[in-house]
């Protein structure tokens, strides 16, 4: 699991991870995670990429974890951008209450793309800046080409201009 952003006001963080992180109650507890965005199809859909919301019906962390699923496969035909607003809203709300884990199977493509949607919309970053922040925190961040294209489209949709001369906010404090 990799921290890609620490909110300067609350101290809460956005983490990107894979299946092992989503299954580790110790990792979840140690990092103050209260919200988990699962970017995989449902486990019962019969698709190989689906992962369970491992602690959805458990109170092992004290309070119940809040889950949201974005049922998308890691293939070129998927429209992850159609879920961008829901992902951003969930991450933003989650940061108010605690830290957020955004995960897919490996923590490389779908989860990184969703974290980038948040950075574009809420932090005013370009798609390239957002990818840079994610890759700095998680070197394995490598969205498939169609998701990178969707990030660039989302940047335009959000009105974020290239070369605005911003320094990306500190992510590692």
From TrEMBL:
Domain spans labelled Tyrosine specific protein phosphatases: 100-140
InterPro entries: Dual-sp_phosphatase_cat-dom, Prot-tyrosine_phosphatase-like, Tyr_Pase_dom, TYR_PHOSPHATASE_DUAL_dom
CC terms in the record's Gene Ontology section: cytoplasm
Gene3D superfamilies associated with the record: Protein tyrosine phosphatase superfamily
UniProt keyword list: Hydrolase, Protein phosphatase
GO biological process, one term: negative regulation of MAPK cascade
Pfam families documented for this protein: DSPc
EC class of the enzyme, as a word: hydrolase
UniProt-listed Enzyme Commission number(s): 3.1.3.48
Molecular function GO labels: protein tyrosine phosphatase activity
Domain Tyrosine-protein phosphatase: 3-160
Family per similarity comment: Belongs to the protein-tyrosine phosphatase family. Non-receptor class dual specificity subfamily.
The protein's name in its UniProt record: protein-tyrosine-phosphatase
Protein's organism: Triparma retinervis
């Amino acid at each position: 699991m990799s921290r890609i952003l620490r909110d300067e006001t609350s101290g809460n963080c956005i983490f990107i991870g894979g299946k092992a992180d989503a299954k580790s109650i110790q990792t979840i507890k140690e990092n103050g995670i209260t919200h988990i965005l699962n970017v995989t199809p449902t486990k019962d859909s019969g698709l190989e990429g689906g992962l369970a919301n491992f602690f959805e019906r458990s109170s092992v962390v004290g309070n119940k974890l809040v889950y949201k699923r974005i049922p998308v496969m890691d293939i070129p035909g998927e429209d992850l951008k159609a879920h961008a607003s829901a992902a951003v809203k969930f991450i933003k709300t989650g940061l108010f209450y605690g830290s957020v884990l955004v995960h897919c199977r490996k923590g490389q493509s779908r989860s990184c793309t969703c974290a980038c949607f948040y950075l574009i919309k809420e932090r005013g970053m370009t798609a390239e800046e957002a990818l840079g922040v994610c890759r700095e925190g998680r070197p394995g961040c490598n969205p498939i080409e169609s998701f990178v294209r969707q990030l660039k489209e989302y940047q335009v949709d959000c009105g974020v201009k290239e070369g605005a001369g911003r320094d990306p906010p500190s992510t590692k404090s």
